[in-house]
């Protein structure tokens, strides 16, 4: 029997990119169950998603952060799915690479897969956020992973049934990764040709990375007490 795959997409103000992400997913496999959790968007994200057929749109009136959006999506998808995938809303055409994350799960080569992106095309920050996340995983688990912060992941159902999401915003990937490794689950990093909206070395980019760093640091400190 073919595995039932659910894709959960947390979305916040992604009106420019999310429709292409969704249509790409539906083109590669129309059997995927797609759950979009609109996290209190102030643009037309929800309205545009609502026009796409055969998916589930879950709307939040307030922005509660990525961790809560994923938790909402899991609650909706878990009962009827064998494999659950997290994807970002801004992948556009590169969302088709999702099958590379699903195959090792189907083949029982891993409990969880994490997408490893190609190098960024433009200069972003100075690597502090990524270094903090990698160190956070190593100091709490003794394991080394290159791709700690990737939001593109696939899970066996049993993994998510045994995982608690108590992390806010951008700290969710770090907290989740530490918990998964400490529970003994096998994580496989998978190289993909995905891309997403990159932040540069402008004020907006530094503010974004500053918010990331703060939220990841909160999880780091919580885990290393």
UniProtKB/TrEMBL annotation:
It holds the Pfam family Glycos_transf_2. Keywords: Transferase. The keyword Transferase applies. InterPro entries: Glyco_trans_2-like, Glycosyltransferase_2, Nucleotide-diphossugar_trans. GO terms for molecular function: transferase activity. This is Glycosyl transferase, family 2. It comes from Clostridium aceticum.
């Amino acid at each position: 029997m073919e595995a039932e795959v659910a894709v959960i997409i947390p979305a916040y103000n992604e009106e420019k990119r999310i429709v292409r992400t969704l249509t790409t997913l539906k083109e590669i496999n129309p059997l995927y169950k797609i759950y979009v959790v609109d996290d209190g968007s102030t643009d037309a994200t929800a309205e545009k998603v609502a026009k796409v057929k055969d998916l589930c749109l879950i709307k939040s009136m307030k922005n509660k952060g990525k961790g809560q959006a994923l938790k909402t999506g899991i609650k909706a998808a878990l009962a009827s799915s064998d494999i659950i995938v997290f994807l970002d809303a801004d992948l556009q055409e590169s969302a088709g690479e999702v099958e590379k994350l699903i195959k090792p799960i189907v083949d029982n080569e891993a409990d969880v897969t994490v997408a490893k992106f190609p190098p960024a095309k433009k200069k972003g920050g100075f690597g502090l956020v990524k270094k903090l996340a990698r160190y956070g995983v190593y100091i709490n688990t003794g394991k080394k992973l290159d791709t700690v912060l990737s939001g593109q992941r696939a899970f066996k159902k049993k993994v998510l049934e045994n995982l608690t999401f108590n992390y806010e915003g951008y700290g969710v990937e770090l907290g989740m990764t530490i918990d998964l490794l400490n529970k003994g689950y096998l994580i496989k990093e998978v190289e993909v040709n995905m891309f997403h909206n990159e932040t540069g070395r402008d004020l907006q980019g530094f503010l974004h990375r500053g918010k990331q760093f703060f939220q990841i640091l909160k999880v780091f400190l919580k885990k290393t007490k």
